[in-house]
Every structure is written in structure tokens, then in C-alpha cells.
Task: structure prediction
Amino acid sequence: MLLYLALQALWTGLCQAAMQHYPAAWGHYDVCKSQIYSDEGLTWDYMACQPEAADMTHYLKVTLDPPNITCGNPPETYCALENPYMCNNECDASTEELAHPPELMFDIEGRNPTTFWQSTSWKRYPKALLVNITLSWNKTIELTDDIVLTFESGRPEQMVLEKSLDYGRTWQPYQFYATDCLDAFTMEPKTVQDLTQHTLLDIICTEDYSRGYVWKYDKTVRFEIKDRFALFAGPRLHNMASLYGQLDTTKNLRDFFTITDLRIRLLRPATGATMVDENNLSRYFYAISDIKVQGRCKCNLHANSCVFDKEKLSCECEHNTTGPDCGRCKRNYQGRTWSAGSYLPIPKGTANICIPNNIGPVIGPNVSSLGVANRKEARVCDNELMRCQNGGVCVGNVRCNCPSAYSGLLCEKPRCETELGGCRGPSSGQPPLRPPSSFGLLPLLLLGLALL
Result:
């Protein structure tokens, strides 16, 4: 009976090992630390890490200028741009089914009919119909994919996309859009395909998203992030190591893809490539059904998760760092100057962790593992990272004084494991750091079957 129970336990462990999930993409820097066994015992291995990319429109605040630019107050009837005689679209802010508030730019797509924000019509022509749409995160964001705007009213004939890195205090252009770049902005028209590694940071004006008018099909306006990544990572982004290396060593490049705010400046609505019909100005307006901004919280490679709490994003900092962006060392961990993590060397990078105060000089450069590159004392009895286990007591913030039944750096090993015959009873020590290897369990399972 005992042998049967032992075999049953072995089989359960084998199944759990087979089902255990491991991170598949270490090259994406999704793990901040892991426990490993070294010649000196159990220790932490620290790695550069960053949160996964996400749809950042879930976490923003949108502001419109002028504030009363949204249609519906008073109610207004609009005509279709492609058919001036089809005037059956009504906007009424007091009726939910007919209202077009700004939040409809960020709701779930795929509804029928399509939901969208809409501006007032160009009723003050020839005075310009100007609208600023500002997206604010109150947090630094790293862009990871194209910014995509979907228009329901025909794409604007003149538009500027701007970014801020200081929470909206100052702005820089990201890209200009026009049917005629020379006429609108005195800039030669270019496309992202004209850029090279040396001119990637150039601000261009493109006519790709404004020229021509096919109302039912040409709805999107893009700011091409991935095409710029491809200049370093290759057409299909296979060589991300090259891109990460460039981001690591070129601050201007890293800052180019980093924002706290975006601003969409709508300067001239679609007119259908014709003269403006002054007798039917209700044909001209802006309407946006969707805005996509894909990115991640900037955590300086010191966190792999970001939380949204009390209407604010903040990194869940590791490596003894703190702050909204993990931009400084925690109290009592200022043994050396704070430094951002590094993508290099690929694939785990360098954590550049903050170390405790007053532990003496650091031995060698900080790579990823305390106890390998830093002083040995910084490895154990750290209240945040390395607690003594199984009733062990920390001695001088240097080592663990273990009970007689346990040994190891953190008292994590039952002493009977090192004795002849091993442990006969169930272990009260820590669970294994990794699920049991199927290769280690299989011989035991076969042995048990042979004994049966």
C-alpha cells in the first residue's frame, strides 16, 4: 500500500512538472529576478525587465480645445460629405443615441452602427475649424506599435501629431499630414520609407494619409512606429537585439519613442478634394471612431508590471528602486548612484540594482546577480528579497542562523537531504524553486513499477 501511495505521489509530481508554465519570451525582458543555486548556495539572479505592451487608451485622460467643440449643443443636422443632399445625420448631446462625446473614440470597436466622436460643423467658414485633442497619461509611456486614428468623416486635409515628454508643458511635432505639404507647412513631402537609420529622428510631412478621397475605405491615419523600429530590427522585426542595443546606447532614440502626452491638432477637415461649398457647410466636420496607442509604462527596466490605481499608472518597482518610473533607489538602498537597467547583454540585460547603504565597496561591475558581482553581504537577510526560512534567524544582516534540521544560505535545505539514505519523512522545508524535472522523476517511476 505504501509503495502504491509513493507511486501515486510520483505520478502527480510528474504531471505537475509537465503542466508547469514557463515564460516563453526571455528576450522580451518579462522577468526581473529568479532564484538559482550557485557554488555558494541559493542566490538571486537579477535581470533587466519591463512591463508587457498594452492598449494604453484604457488609462488616459482626453481633453478637447476648444471645450465646446463637440457637436450636439445645440442639436445639429449634418450632410454626408460624398452626397450633399443626404442630410439625415443628427447630433444631439441630450439624447444618448444621438450624442457623440469624446469617450466614443476609445470604446470597443465593432459595434453596429459605429460609434464616434464628432465636432461641430464648419459653420464659421472661412475661419479655420481648429481642434486640439490631447491624450494625457500622467506617466511616461514607451510606444511599441503604430499610433492609428480612424476617421468617420473623411481624413483631415491638414493635421499635426505632437508629443510631450514633460506632462504637456512643452510640445514637439511628431509628424505633419497634408494633401499638399509644401502649401500647408512649407515642407517637402516624404514617407517613412524615405527615412534611414541616420534620419530616423527627422520630423517629416506626409501626404500618404490625406491625398485622394475614397470616403468609405481610406479612414486611417498612422504614425508608423514599427516601420521606424524596422530600420534597426529588420523588415519583420526579427533582429530585436539590434534595436534594443540602439535604444540602450542612444538616449535621443529612446526619448523619441517615449511620451507623457499626445496631441492631435486638426487644422482643416476633409472637403472631398473640391472647393468648399459655402451654401452647405454642414458637410464639413471632424469625426473619429477609434484611436489606438499601444505601449508600455516606462519603468527604466526595473519592473515587469504596471498598476492603474486611483486614476494613475505607476510601476511596481523591483531591484530596490522606487518612484512612478522606478527612477530612484529606495531608502537605505543608496549604496551607489541609481542607474537605469540595460538591455545589454542580450537576452537578460543588466539589472543595475540598488544596493544597501554602508556595505563597503562593490567588487566588480554590477551584472545581474548579487553575490556574484556585488559584495556577498548584500545577498542575504535583505528584508525585501532574501528572508531566512524555516525559523532561521538573521545574524548581522550577513547570514542566517539555521535550526538544527536545516542548512543552506537561507535555511532552505533539510539537513537529512545530505545524509546517507536521504529524508525518510515529508520535508517541512521550502517547496522546490522549480517543478520536479520529468527526467529526474521518470527513473523513480520506472523503479517503482519494477518493484510492484
The mean pLDDT is 81.
